[in-house]
Amino acid sequence: MDYDRYDHIRAVQWRGDHLHLLDQRRLPQEECWLDCRQAADVVQAIRELAVRGAPAIGIAAAWGVVLAGRSGTDMDTALADLRAARPTAVNLMWALDRMRARHAAGADAAALAAEAQAIQDEDLAANRHMGELGAALIASGSGVLTHCNTGSLATAGFGTALGVIRAGVAQGRIAQVYAGETRPWQQGARLTMYELVRDGIAARLIADSAAAHLMKTGAVQWVIVGADRIAANGDTANKIGTYQLAIAAKYHGVKFMVVAPSSTVDMATASGDAIAIEMRDPEELFSIAGKRVVVAGAQAWNPVFDVTPAALIDAIVTERGVIERPTAQAMQAAFRA
Amino acid sequence: MDYDRYDHIRAVQWRGDHLHLLDQRRLPQEECWLDCRQAADVVQAIRELAVRGAPAIGIAAAWGVVLAGRSGTDMDTALADLRAARPTAVNLMWALDRMRARHAAGADAAALAAEAQAIQDEDLAANRHMGELGAALIASGSGVLTHCNTGSLATAGFGTALGVIRAGVAQGRIAQVYAGETRPWQQGARLTMYELVRDGIAARLIADSAAAHLMKTGAVQWVIVGADRIAANGDTANKIGTYQLAIAAKYHGVKFMVVAPSSTVDMATASGDAIAIEMRDPEELFSIAGKRVVVAGAQAWNPVFDVTPAALIDAIVTERGVIERPTAQAMQAAFRA
């Protein structure tokens, strides 16, 4: 299958002696690249959201460790700084643990670079594999709806949920893609639409609140989303708005798919109830594109994530396989340590 | 009850020889007023959304008829132009039919002005009455969520759904108000927050897609919305996103209230299936605050309204009374001609 045709974007690129990062804050208006030559540059890029998406953050951090090794930066400090750059990202911890283990085993700069490259290559391969696994669930001629950005920009390439969509398009299963804006950061409007238009995939942007009406028209058969953390019972934390989509999907008989690498699964978290929801600055709702749109003196409630209970999920797709109608038992069988 | 304390805004004001309109396009950044001296000025204000909200549009149009009468404009032309300014607004047709009947009965300029004033006064009185009817359904200490703007700006004053909220706050029943942004026009962010902050009502803005997560926290007991059209079986067309809120409310056991003047009820429309949903320019999703945020070449799907089925509605409140768990039979009993 010719997946390359729908997979042109590489946002995290190692260039032999530095890390070349597509600055996602400036997309789609400008394609600007950052060159990180120190681990501290990578910390800053993660912290300021120049690089975003759980797998992409992990990969960038792994290269940050390589930069620390090359420049002789104290490795404990570098690891701690990278870990603190985005404290809730499970993939970040996973990638850093892997690099730390290689360093502890005495890896030199070349061996650290090989490990970072392996993390990156494995992520791309996992995404291609998840794409095939997820696409196999989708009937020919389907419409799908996605949320936030889970594509090449958020990963080593191809994407997780958006990888399933790329594979489904390549296989002729998906006839139309809809993308929610994903307020307040507009990752769907800014980033997913950028990817889909660049890769020539027919896509329509919708307001997040138009999703239920879209489902009612019969235009979508699957909602396909990524995950920030998947608990041991299948409950899934993801971008705010995911839960609302899952409820609307259940109401309309639309299927709901979560796509994420197995490093997103956190078997130490029993259920979604144990996942703390990060709250962010109300200012994100008060100003749009740098312009204040809400009256002075207003307050806001601005959670970043929500939790979709496993009962609303039809399939969890990881590179290890598909879990349909996830339960704690099925998750335990698939992901026990 | 001291409702005046929470009701300071009057966006449509007759000033003896002209109509003084608060330009809602420029809120909350600027409080600019338009002076309409010809019916054509009112047509333009309605068409360009300087005045919005079904009841406010109807009232402004009634004053447009008065201006036509005063200036000797051909009345058939004026009525047709006003009617065409916002073709889907039921209240607009209703107000113009009322003015047309007075004109046809030989009303002079003063009598036409008296009729327009009556329409405006009756709307305010109806809103105060609906406020009391709706608030009586709300238990003390409740949190409520509203959508779009249904307040003083959208009516002669006090508002419909926001009138229930004002009454509920005044009566001490409502402890916290949440308002959805209401993409893409941001009426909730721009207008509802403006009203609530100006009237000293504790309110928090949320992203539209955060509503289900908010409900899960137990913070809201009622969703309270307005209506653009209510069909004969209780199905309700309202701002895009309303349907999604109703589904999420049902899922969480949160109650759902529709508040609108009886002029919004269209007994000639059997059900929501017969209501055509207006689609608007994709450009509304591509640019925010005048700045392009979506990649060139993107497409969008941008419906303005959706239909909430009566089965998801716990109460329809009009000035004629409350219909709980609306059915075609109950609607027929309340609104038969």
Topology:
2 copies of one chain form a homodimer.
Chain A: E1 12-14, E2 19-22, E3 33-36, H1 39-47, H2 54-71, H3 75-84, H4 90-104, H5 109-135, E4 142-146, H6 161-170, E5 174-180, H7 187-198, E6 203-206, H8 211-216, E7 222-225, E8 229-231, E9 236-239, H9 242-252, E10 255-259, E11 265-266, H10 283-286, E12 287-288, E13 291-292, E14 299-300, E15 305-308, E16 315-318, E17 321-324, H11 328-335
Parallel strand pairs in A: 4-5, 4-7, 5-6, 7-10, 8-11, 10-16
Antiparallel strand pairs in A: 1-2, 2-3, 8-9, 9-15, 12-13, 16-17
Helix pairs in contact in A: 1-2, 1-3, 2-3, 2-4, 2-5, 3-4, 4-5, 5-6
Structure explained in plain terms:
The structure is a homodimer of 337-residue chains. With 337 residues, chain A is α/β, with parallel strands linked by helices. Chain A folds into two domains: 3-126, translation initiation factor eif-2b, domain 1 (Four Helix Bundle (Hemerythrin (Met), subunit A)), CATH 1.20.120; 128-335, Rossmann fold, CATH 3.40.50.10470. Chain A has helices spanning 39-47, 54-71, 75-84, 90-104, 109-135, 161-170, 187-198, 211-216, 242-252, 283-286, 328-335; strands at residues 12-14, 19-22, 33-36, 142-146, 174-180, 203-206, 222-225, 229-231, 236-239, 255-259, 265-266, 287-288, 291-292, 299-300, 305-308, 315-318, 321-324. In chain A, helix 3 runs antiparallel to helix 4. The first copy, chain A, is globular, with a radius of gyration of 19 Å. Strand 6 (203-206) of chain A pairs parallel with strand 14 (299-300) of chain B, so a sheet runs across the interface.
